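Translate sequence into structure tokens.
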Amino acid sequence: MIIDAHGHTTLPETVYAWKAGLLSHRGAHGKSAPRLSDDDLRRALTSPTFGTVSHLEQLRAVGTDLQLISPRPFQMMHSEQPHRIVNWYIEETNNLIARQCQLYPDTFRGVCGLPQHPNRAPLDDAIAELERCVKELGFVGCLLNPDPDEGAGCPPGLGDEYWYPLYAKLVELDVPALIHSASCRSPRESYSLHFIQEESVAIMSLLNSRVFDDFPTLKLIVSHGGGAIPYQVGRFEAARYRAGREPFRESLRKLWFDTCLYSQEGLELLFKVVGPDRCLFGTERPGTGTARDPRTGQWMDDVKALIDRIEWLSDADRRRIYEENARALFRL
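Result follows.
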């Protein structure tokens, strides 16, 4: 079985038109969420998207059996005010994802977005939504944005005790969080680059903290193959040797990593640095990588084809990456 642990929902365009309204009136007109039928939700998943065939057809084309879907991160508007419009949008998106999972129970499982807020706002809203989604909607995990300021401030690193109430709830519910930032207000970087930057900062903050001493069963997955960290591992390894501390590569194995990388070279390095036993298959398909490589004619987000070409991976390695690690981590 092929389990894609990094996927995002495809929703009707009316959802994003409603979101634009929320941003325009800032909640003055109330929530007024769009009323969508099951057929509307099916149509979104069975109509062409990202310049090619439908979401469901794209999964079938690359052999994905089960995909864990969450809100599109760049749409989550965590830095917007007032807080209620963020709460409304995230809650409604999670509700729609739950309905898609009910319509396609053999194809999808839900990973919830959290209504996070900037400026060190209390995490009460995020914790309440996590609990609702897991206990009432049957979701198997959540997204965790390490930068709710969306590039416009200086949020606490994930090693900061600010995050401890959320970590405690994740441990209590025994669900993992996929570290994945949202949009970016800075003109210096696109939101896509911001993802990589924030994942890198998140790893360094976590591994230079007491988080895993205080929460030894906490399950955190780093999106996009760990940002830039696997490529710079030697730099951080040298600092650890000078300090006489645990080797950096060993510390990295306290985390999990997805394979949402679109080159064979990047995937090989990830597996060599952290080990196939700490990696979960993930593609984000359909998404950023949904483009054909003109050199080969293949889809760049057909990550399974890239992994299958890595000759030194064993059959046991592939089983762990494609299925076993996700089953264990998400309790599927």
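Note: The longest strand covers residues 3-8.
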